[in-house]
Specification:
Blueprint lengths: L2 H11 L2 E2 H8 L3 H10 L3 E2 L7 E3 L11 E4 L2 E4 L4 H11 L4 E2 H8 L17 E6 L2 E6 L2 H12 L6 H13 L5 H9 L7 H10 L12
Antiparallel strand pairs: 1-3, 2-3, 4-5, 6-8, 7-8
């Protein structure tokens, strides 16, 4: 087959192996890999990276993943890059079991040992199990709060909280929650703290209670 015919063949089949591509192009493995690079083909992140697909073929989901039969592709790059991106983009961070479910990995896969010192993420113990979170302090704190179930104030609550904060900029989070309660809004101090942290105001409100 000539190159346009091979491309049409891949579009019909969705995925292809290097051996199959060599046979269709009647070329060497090196030449076939060069063609894949020119085509900017995606490499599967499972199946030992044996499969390839063309950029126009995958319909990636909200996690940047696309499956064809048992073959998994990612818009984020290789498996490690994909896991890092998923962790950084997760509202709550991801436990190993959650990563494994997303990517069809064994929960005890040795691959997780490679993530301990991976740039962009951190592993910490939460609720008796390891959870992977962003290494950015602001994102990591939001992920912790989400996993702990701390609700973010509604828009109406946020307005009242911020108004009280402007009036009383030197009081702590607990006192601010009490001020808001005086306005008829019952809200947990942790939620107040989360709102102030989100707006970069928490440093101005030292807590006066343990």
């Amino acid at each position: 087959m000539d190159e346009p015919q091979v491309i049409e063949h891949i579009k019909r089949q969705k995925i292809i192996t290097i051996d199959r591509l060599v046979g269709l192009l009647e070329c060497s493995v090196i030449t076939a890999r060069r063609r894949l690079k020119v085509w900017k083909a995606h490499t599967s992140i499972n199946q030992n990276g044996r499969y390839y697909t063309l950029p126009a073929i995958p319909v990636f989901d909200e996690n940047g993943l696309w499956r064809h039969q048992a073959v998994l592709f990612s818009r984020h790059g290789n498996l490690k890059q994909t896991i890092i991106m998923l962790i950084q983009g997760s509202p709550k961070g991801l436990a190993a079991a959650e990563i494994a479910e997303l990517l069809d990995l064994a929960p005890n896969s040795s691959f997780f040992s490679r993530l301990r010192d991976a740039p962009g993420i951190k592993r910490e113990k939460q609720g008796g199990r390891f959870v992977y979170v962003s290494d950015r302090p602001d994102i990591r704190e939001r992920q912790r709060e989400q996993r702990e179930g701390i609700a973010f104030p509604t828009d109406a609550q946020a307005v009242v909280i911020l108004v009280q904060f402007i009036k009383h900029p030197d009081i702590g989070v607990f006192e601010l929650a009490e001020c808001v309660a005086g306005q008829g809004i019952s809200i947990e101090p942790a939620a107040v703290q989360r709102l102030l942290r989100f707006h970069g105001l928490l440093k101005k409100t030292p807590d006066t209670r343990p």
